[in-house]
Amino acid sequence: MTFQTTAIAMAVAGVVAAPVAVQAGADEIYASARVGVDYTDKKGTQDTNISSHGSRFGARGETDLGNGLTAFGRYEWGVDFNGGSEVSDTDGEDVNVDSFSTRHRYVGLKGDFGSVTAGRTYHTFYNFAVGGTDVPWQGSGANMVAYVGRTDQGLTYAGGSDALAFSATVYMDRDDEEDAVDYHEVGASYTFGNDMTLGLAVQGTAADLDGGTGGTVTGKTIGNESDKTVLGVMLSGISLGDASLGFGYQSQDDDWSFLVDGSFNNFYAHFETEHLDSGSASATTTDDVDPVMYAIGYNQPLGRKTQMYYEAVFKDADSGDSDDDSTALYAVLKYDII
Question: What predicted TM-score, i.e. pTM, was given to this entire model?
Answer without folding.
Answer: 0.85
